Amino acid sequence: MLKKQTVWLLTMLSLVVVLSVYYVTAPKEMGNSPALTANEKTEKPAKQPSVAVEETGAKEEPSTAGDDLFTALRMKIEDERSRLRDELNAIVASANATEEEKSEALDKIEKLQALSEKEATLETLIKSKGGYEDVLVRADDNQVRVTIKAKQSSSKSANEVIHMVKKEIPDAQYVTVEFQPAG
Predict the structure, then answer these.
(1) pLDDT score for 61
(2) Structural domains in the chain?
């Protein structure tokens, strides 16, 4: 059986290869995408949940650009989380770290894994219930951003998505639902 370090190394190498291939084949004009440039946070009181519905009217190559955008965002999120997991695993493996620090790092790793699972569950649930082409869920602390690739968008469907998010991630205070046109 392979050691954990060997499996981890092979996983990281495969991730680097996938990212390299994507970087080489990615379209160059992705920087103007609404989902990448709309990172503004709304200032609201901490006790009031925030709900925002955004419609983007981007008329780029709908199916290809949207698929590439969702894939790029997923890879970016996975890359950031992978780096964070590496840092936390380094703390756990460190001989200089105290037991408290190691325990805290393990807790963070578990929370990160649980968050990834909740995001994947939400993506599948929203996609199947709403009949959408693609869904991307990004959760950070108390903020959840949902980007949906759909032919039609409505406040009612956004409200249903928000209820699904609140059911799965109850401590989410800010939920943003963004619709992108599907081709």
Answers:
(1) 43
(2) 4-26+48-181 (1.10.287.4300)
